[in-house]
């Protein structure tokens, strides 16, 4: 998959990647990135020298047509884990599957906003990344994606050519807890993670969850 995508990636988006050395050469880590485009996972996967498993919305596994076919090919090639965002029990099961990825010493990527930004702002982060970090003691690598919103915003079917920048930040570590679901610890860790992402991406922040903002506009959360 990477061999196929790399030439296209280089030709159309002239990627500028900073801080790739912050991803450990071996051992587990959580990649926590802002989410601006349907191509974000592709850009991250191609940039990394190591294989990354993503937590991906369950719709990628069921969408019909050409878009669905492309999505299924990508999730199959990268071994993504389906997340049913409307079902808390299944979402928790997906997090446990993510913990399994980390226990094998692999990389796991999560978009803490939970869905793509509809307007390019950085929205509030959900607690899944913090929960995993607190339960496993695995470092979190914050990532700021720049330019992917202009390449493929939510209202566009086909991507544009353009310059994409990926900035991988210094690892964040949190004290391991026997119960990572502790509310205060999760909130504090989430705030630190989102602050680091904002510093890397330079985005304006929105003090609301992206799903709620989309719902207020009558948009389907994607």
Keywords:
single chain; 222 residues; alpha/beta; Glycerol-3-phosphate (1)-acyltransferase; 7 strands; globular; transferase; 1-acylglycerol-3-phosphate O-acyltransferase activity; Plipid/glycerol_acylTrfase
Describe it for me?
This is 1-acyl-sn-glycerol-3-phosphate acyltransferase. One of its GO terms (molecular function) is 1-acylglycerol-3-phosphate O-acyltransferase activity. This protein starts with a helix and ends in a 6-residue tail after the last helix. Helices cover 40% and strands 14% of the residues. It is built from 8 helices and 7 strands. With 222 residues, the protein is α/β, with parallel strands linked by helices. It has a single domain (2-216), classed as Glycerol-3-phosphate (1)-acyltransferase, CATH 3.40.1130. Helix 1 (2-13) crosses helix 2. The radius of gyration is 16 Å and the shape is globular. The longest helix has 19 residues, at 183-201. Strand 3, helix 3 and strand 4 (81-83) form a beta-alpha-beta unit. A 7-stranded mixed sheet has the order 1-7-6-2-5-3-4, with helices on both faces. The protein has helices spanning 2-13, 40-47, 65-78, 88-103, 128-136, 148-151, 183-201, 210-216; strands at 16-18, 29-33, 52-57, 81-83, 107-110, 140-146, 165-168. The relative contact order is 0.20.
| Strands, count | 7
Task: Tell me the fraction of residues in β-strands, as a range.
Answer: 5-15%
Spell out the helices and strands N to C. HEEHEHEHEHEHEHH
Structural class: alpha/beta
Give a quick precis of the structure:
The protein has 222 residues and is of the alpha/beta class. The protein has helices at 2-13, 40-47, 65-78, 88-103, 128-136, 148-151, 183-201, 210-216, and strands at residues 16-18, 29-33, 52-57, 81-83, 107-110, 140-146, 165-168.
């Amino acid at each position: 998959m990477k061999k196929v995508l790399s030439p296209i990636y280089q030709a159309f988006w002239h990627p500028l990647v900073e801080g790739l050395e912050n991803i450990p050469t071996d051992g587990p880590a959580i990649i926590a990135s802002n989410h601006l485009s349907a191509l974000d996972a592709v850009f991250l996967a191609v940039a990394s020298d190591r294989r990354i498993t993503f937590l991906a919305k369950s719709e990628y596994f069921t969408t019909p047509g050409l878009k669905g076919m492309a999505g299924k090919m990508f999730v199959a090639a990268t071994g993504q884990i389906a997340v049913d965002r409307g079902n808390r029990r299944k979402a928790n099961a997906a997090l446990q599957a993510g913990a399994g990825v980390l226990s094998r010493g692999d990389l796991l990527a999560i978009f803490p906003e939970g869905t793509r930004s509809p307007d390019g702002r950085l929205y509030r982060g959900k607690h899944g990344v913090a929960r995993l970090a607190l339960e496993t003691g695995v470092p979190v690598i914050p990532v700021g994606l720049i330019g992917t919103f202009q390449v493929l915003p939510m209202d566009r079917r086909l991507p544009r050519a353009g310059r994409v920048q990926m900035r991988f930040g210094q690892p964040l570590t949190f004290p391991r807890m026997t119960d990572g679901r502790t509310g205060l610890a999760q909130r504090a860790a989430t705030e630190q993670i989102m602050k680091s992402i904002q510093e890397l991406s330079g985005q304006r922040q929105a003090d609301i969850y992206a799903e709620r903002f989309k719902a207020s506009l009558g948009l389907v959360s994607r």
